[in-house]
Amino acid sequence: MGAFLVRKAAVTEWIRSLAREQPLFFPQPVGRSGFRFQPLREGSEVRFDHYRPSVVPPGRQLTPAGEVLFRYRTGEGGVPGFESVLDASPRILAGVRPCDLRGIYLMDRVNREGRDDPHYLTRRANTAIIACDCLAPCDDFCFCETVGSLRWREGADLFLTSVDGDFLVEALTPLGESLLPGTGFARCEDVAGLRARAEEVRVRPFGRHFALSPERIAAILPGLWRSPVWENCGQRCLSCGSCNLVCPTCYCFDIQDDFDISDPSSGDRRRNWDGCLLPNFAEVAGGHNFRPQPSARQRHRVKRKFEYLVGRLAEGSFCVGCGRCGRQCTVGIDIFDIVSELVAVAEPPP
Amino acid sequence: MKPKVAFFDFAGCEGCQLTILDCEDLFLDLLERVDIVEFREALSETAPRFDVAFIEGSIHREEDAERLREIRSRSTLLVTLGACAGLGNVQARSNFLSPATNFRRVYGEEELNRVQADPEFWPLWAHTRVRSVKEVVPVDYELRGCPVVAEEFLHLVKSLVVGTVPHVPTVAVCVECKMQENECVFDRGETCLGQITYGGCKAVCIGHGYRCDGCRGLLPQANLEAHRQLLRDKGLDESRILERYRLFGSAEAWGRERRP
Ligand code: SF4
Ligand code: SF4
Question: Which tops the pLDDT comparison, B249 or B161?
């Protein structure tokens, strides 16, 4: 696959030209501090340098809130007919950072586990990803390096690395390659040298670090079921669910049916984002709730990210270290702090 | 037979009924499914019995409470429309003042003297207490918001018509904010009641640059202790906090609690 060294202005121009051909989602500022992956329009800014993680991760474009899964219609003799709704329209996610790229990679795995999820996978198959490296942490909440996301590249079709003011543009897949013709970018031979140059200027250590590796964290968690840490954050938690909904690897959903008022024999089934911190999440028929206390919900979340899914799919960590949940929790509950406390209790520093 | 539906208003601005009338195209489809037998905003008929009674407005005087009980006795289901019927809304803040003080604030000393001296002038001025509908009669469903959300109204009516259980959101406004990808009000340096308030509104206020003031009511699981501490940390004093909690929910527990 090709690699190119390109002036920043030319990269910007190329992104703009891609956006004229198909929807291209690029992080754009909202309000004072937020970012949103939105379709790039004429006149929108294309900047790579002042990014902070978007309110919701780019991967959420692959499971939009309230997406229709299928439509139904009752035909002759009351026989229902179903029509699956799959979105195969092409799109590009650009400016995706390594943490979110790993998030999408993990969601790819989840949606292929057991029975394929055709809704996710159809969107995914028609989505090209232009990722972009981070050479400095986005802010104080970031901890991507310690969970193994910082140098993540799998899942990207093109990968951009800033090198001394220019961009190293690497095509990682044929799909990525197909977005380059006509650009006239100059091929570059010394990819290794340029990458080494970027690595040299990368901030070290990068963001916050756990005292233990993700593997060790997964190993100590089973012994911490009764830790007071859960109750402590449970008391402060407002059960607003924000931490779930902004997470690149939270994918739980709720299903609702709706019918047309003009013809009640036809309608659709939709799915909406859900989250395990929401109080009724674990409520089942008959009204029993398996996790009525916020502390139990907090424990569940942490164990999902650092133990359960990690074991099931043999991945290092399901938390990608983007820092969104801690950044957006209004009462300052940060999964990095929770895990650090657990680590300190289980393996006190010598 | 089409279900009979009736609308009644008590103390409120009738904005909820107008919101419903406003979704004209849907409303016409709806008329195919239900018979509207009473609706002051749209018709003048009336009926002895109905399947669903929608109540808008808060209950102020004993004669209003009587009328409400009478409506309840004629209807199979009773649904409140909006924050006035559901929570008492802003008018319930007068519950914390004596009727005379309240009257003076609004109309002045002279009018107060007159209303107290002349029984003919405004006989019912000193109402008892502003109540939400559920304080007077049992309520089957609550449509929240100030005003209600037209889609939620439609969803409820559709469910009642075909006999399915309506989906009533019991999650915080924050969930809606995230779905709309709003910048959090706290990140703008302001404070918000979204975390403890029923969602279902698509976070419209926040999406338009304001904050959540809690018009949809306090979530049953709300961690008020922690939320109050958060507002304190953001620099609000106790009286400001109480004011914020009481704005829409004065007839509710969170408005009434006096804990410092
Ligand atoms: S964002 Fe914070 S307050 Fe809200 S549910 Fe998550 S931990 Fe609790
Ligand atoms: S703005 Fe308010 S409702 Fe929205 S996320 Fe923040 S606290 Fe929640």
Answer: B161
